[in-house]
């Protein structure tokens, strides 16, 4: 299937990508959520923010990062001087993977294979938006962008070069912070804030 994919023509606009993703059945998660959740933001954004996959709220509303993790991301971004509306915000995987427990839909992490299958779409978004900086939130996003698994604690703080000359900055996922409390939350929150501020500084430097 990967070979067929390479031959399939890459969509030429973000709107075309959105339509094509909705029709994608390359992995089993496509049957899982309500809809594919495409990225959103200016097509020439200098910053692309990449999460893992849509959650329950995102799946219902059809927009990335609108649930609890998105609210935390918005708050922390604002504090760090990142304007969300000027960034292109998307996910490594475009469908919500979950297990049903009663009425609740419980998030399940995508497998490496699912991330790698969906990577084609993120690459297509990146090829069109051409951000100068890509911020990966968490291990799934980092894997998608690098094509291999990296340790967040080792990768954070220093940009990694991507194939098109842009820079990849890696940090934790805001959902991780939501699962912590007390001193751990404070400590990790401060590190997250530091990572976001480093991205702001770098964006300014790049002009
Ligand atoms: N978590 C993500 O990784 N992405 C979203 O869009 C929402 C929650």
Automatic annotation (TrEMBL):
Q: What protein does this entry describe?
A: UdgX family uracil-DNA binding protein
- Positions of transmembrane segments: none
Organism whose genome encodes this protein: Erythrobacter crassostreae
Q: Which GO terms are recorded in the biological process aspect for this UniProt protein?
A: DNA repair
Keywords from UniProt, A to Z, are: DNA damage, DNA repair, Hydrolase
**What range(s) does the Uracil-DNA glycosylase-like domain occupy?**
38-197
Tell me the domain of life: Bacteria
| Gene Ontology molecular function: any one | deaminated base DNA N-glycosylase activity
